[in-house]
Amino acid sequence: MTKLEYLPETPSQTAGPYVHIGLIPHQAGFDIFEKPFGNILAARNTQGERIRIEGRVLDGLGSPCKDILLEIWQANAAGRYNHPADGQTDKPIDPGFRGWGRAGTEFDTGLYRFDTIKPGPVTGRRGHKPMAPHVNIWLAARGINIGLATRMYFDDEAALNEEDPVLRMIEPAIRRQTLAARRENRDGGVVYVFDIRLQGENETVFFDV
């Protein structure tokens, strides 16, 4: 038996209490990064339909959590990620779209927001059937030992959602609706509303990644 087998497990630690200062300092009133990561993903030259994603993160009692960090990453309007690991060479890369953003829930309202574009369908690995347009989401906060991963789909893509291989793995099927964002038209723009429920009735589906 080696010496390493006697070592105890390292204690786990939740994010915080300095998660805002270190990761989204502008929300905490600090300007410490030369190129801060923010919640605006779409630049002037980004191709695709411009949308806003907004919602709240709710606890088991339905109350909004006001100290949550959210990160999203997504494909561009053609359905390709701006990453060398994406092998969809038949689809163009949009140089004006990074495809990644970070935001926090607002301290007063509990709302989070991302200004981005609607992604296109992504071809599955090894030639599998296409996945419906979606946005990958990761959450961290005080009290959460391990970051939570989920996806946001679009309720106006019913036909593609029905065939999505990831959604089809979720049983019972009624739980799939926890991953669907509601489309609204406001002030000449498109908003998709996506509330994330950490616990309780209609708890959002989270993925083990």
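The above is record 1. Record 2 follows with the same two-line structure.
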Amino acid sequence: MKTDNHEVIFVIVNSGFAEEAMDVAREQGVRGGTILNARGVAREKEATFFGITVHAEKEILMMVVEKEIRDNVLNALYTRMGMGQKAQGIAFCLPVSDVAGLVKLPEEENI
């Protein structure tokens, strides 16, 4: 289905923080997301410790959200999961032109 009403938010956090990021997003009205395991990369000089290469383990949370809640979700994630926090998260969004598989919950159908 064609839509210009949705965007996908990507949140990249340190390993172990994606569930907490999802909780923050749910508080803003997001219904669910997908968590992927990832590995961060850094400049060689910064990524070695006593001669051992360190690869920071990361998690990526992807959520398709309605545009009207996007800014609230991003602000909440920035405040509670941002670079100044233990999660050291970054978040960004991209437009979604087509959506399949999203269903309205019964309480949303009367809106």
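The chain has a mean pLDDT of 85.
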